[in-house]
Structures
1.
Amino acid sequence: MQFHELLVGLIVVLLAAKLAGEAMERLGQTAVLGELLAGVVIGPGVLGLVREGDVLHALAELGVLILLFEVGLESDLAKLLSAGPQAILVAVAGVVVPFAAGYALMSWLGHPGLVAVFVGATLTATSVGITARVLTDLGRLHDPAATVVLGAAVVDDILGLLTLAVVTGVAATGAVSLGGIAFLGVKSVVFLIVAVVIALRRAPVLVGLIGRLQARGALLVSSLVFALAAAAAAEWIGLAAIIGAFAAGLILSRTEIRTQVEERLKPVADVMVPIFFVTVGMKVELSALNPFAPGAQLGVALALAVVAIASKLVAGLAVYHPGTRRWPVGVGMVPRGEVGLIFAGAGLAAAVVAHDLYSALVVVVMITTFVAPAWLRILYRPAVATAV
Amino acid sequence: MQFHELLVGLIVVLLAAKLAGEAMERLGQTAVLGELLAGVVIGPGVLGLVREGDVLHALAELGVLILLFEVGLESDLAKLLSAGPQAILVAVAGVVVPFAAGYALMSWLGHPGLVAVFVGATLTATSVGITARVLTDLGRLHDPAATVVLGAAVVDDILGLLTLAVVTGVAATGAVSLGGIAFLGVKSVVFLIVAVVIALRRAPVLVGLIGRLQARGALLVSSLVFALAAAAAAEWIGLAAIIGAFAAGLILSRTEIRTQVEERLKPVADVMVPIFFVTVGMKVELSALNPFAPGAQLGVALALAVVAIASKLVAGLAVYHPGTRRWPVGVGMVPRGEVGLIFAGAGLAAAVVAHDLYSALVVVVMITTFVAPAWLRILYRPAVATAV
């Protein structure tokens, strides 16, 4: 029976995600890394316990929409503005330098332009979620460097999603056309500007409508419908669905229902989001990392990981305020996390990034996600005892 | 694109569910009635906006599992025991009388024995959720009659789920075999006894294991995995998956994490459960209710509704304690709600109940669900002003 297979699949996916996530957290790492590893282990590459059928795939896609909606809700335009030009400078450097470095490395290795663009784009990502989580765990969320990193990560997220829209659009049209890029860029910017204008001007009207609902779960379900509708709209005009979900979160982040929506969305995200990360891990082809196999990509993965880390550390140098430490900012920008996986996954879905290169990119994401929390803990070590 | 179709389908289903649920609540009715009507309207019978594909079907099935898990969590063995023999007597009468009356009516109308058994079983249902919700809304949850109704509804739920297991098993084996019924009855009883024993003896061990997890969402996800595993186990030994989910809820209802699990499960249920009720409504064939059509079932539906209401009022007569009012108990047992739909749906899935009779049963469920809240409000009218 099909439903029985789904039940067993969900049990294995959720159980593996939580056990591996738990183990990683006890080792001082982030849960997302455990979820990725869990996917690698239960996936076809190792144990082959679970097959990604239509329903599991759909649940994973809904999971990543919910994640981006949550990230949008956590993003705060006001905080971003208060973090000032310093955060924006770090974010721009944190997009331009990794993109250029990734593009240059891949071109130098002889890959086609579009592949180099996708790899460069993947390296631009910064995971707001992981960075914020690590800083919270260290009790350093309100450190000057932490504020800059958070602000920069938010801007980086927006720039990254724009980049993703452009890159995905280019992959869909099949050619690097300047006119196409400009058109897609304009569409993306218009879409996000409309979202920001709605956020600033019309969000209270929307919230007023939602607030009038009294039935159980009305707030959460109507917010989720709003996010799904924005995702469908983004997809309909040719952008990625996650951009719509992010924009919906951004709109609601400016309203008084934000905290309530976040609070009620959290349990749903707790269940749905790991499904995404596990299925991402399930896509890793370990065989591609065998250094003795023909066409091995382990060297490429390690070279890309070095570039990925070094280029974000360079972004930290954009800090010019004397009271803000540069190292924590640079290291805080390093984890690519779910955003990097979304980029790599979009490249795979667009058939631009081959499976072996995709696996290499997942390894890069895993290395950056693994290194940053441990490194930040070392940087902040003297302060751990006084953490809130 | 398949995912785009799912997005649009989910938006329509959730939006229709919440708007219709909201409208019904404002009319003093229960949200579940609105969700059913919403399904009728957006389904193939009327507007044809949404098609129940594989993914939507799977989400609805997960929704009903989550609902039964929630009902199990709300069920309280201790409260049930304190409500005493009176509640058990009402519950037994509330199962035996409607079953006999429904079976007799259908047999008299010339239906085969198995069909009459399924209809009788459907009439035994009582919706703990709806009854508890209505009593809460009226501020009368701790009324003596309310305690008896709640206790009886819990026993009724267990008896009903046993009945469903027996009836589904009979449908699967294709014949009314006394040996088969006994075997299934024993399997059901053993399964629930094991669940109760675990609840009483081993639940703290389970909770100790869950409580040691620290990662975000660990409590909810591990509880949900437990419910899914119990559902898969129940299905594996030949019972309905919902019985497993209910048993899992019953086990966790005895532990100190119950409140936390309920609280975190609620937003997930808010999103998932309406999907089930809407897809149930989508299965209604309005044409079967046309009194002028050949093979019309409207007369059957109305006769069954009268039997359904009268037989539960008879159960109220089993109240013998002088301090407890009989009418609120009888009326409180009337709403069939989601449990009745599960029975009718199981009959449809087993190809025992035909589509036109299924539609008639859904109408019976809707009438009983519609009548009870209004009737209870009338019975409790003088006390509304002093409600907590």
2.
Amino acid sequence: MPEFMDVHHDMVGITTEALGEAHQADLALQDGEGVNFKHAWADPESGRVWCLSEGPDADAVRRVHERAGHPAAEIYPVPVQA
Amino acid sequence: MPEFMDVHHDMVGITTEALGEAHQADLALQDGEGVNFKHAWADPESGRVWCLSEGPDADAVRRVHERAGHPAAEIYPVPVQA
């Protein structure tokens, strides 16, 4: 299954609790799209959040984040890893 | 130990072999800075590469990447995770 890294730009001040709630919202919606959100990393100062997922394509990842109310600014496939 | 996500912008066309070599160059240099590069994800089409590390501070991460010959464009602490 392809993996994707997506980036959010606008989450300044995000807390562990808020990221956990956002991640749970993704998990609750992902099955309908065949997506699996694996991990999220956040920098509250810059507002950047990165989410690693696997799924059929980037549009499926995009739809889960949109329905959860926090659309991603960027989504990239990450077929090369080390 | 704090964790960091850094971003490279200029690695269009990167292959699994080239990312592996770049990652090994980081691993060979990281001990002197007390840094541990944990994983790297790359999108050959956009040239974006993300590296997850832990270390004492962002400058230590920056120095390892610079000495390895592939300076990061951005480095962020990621204290909030899910």
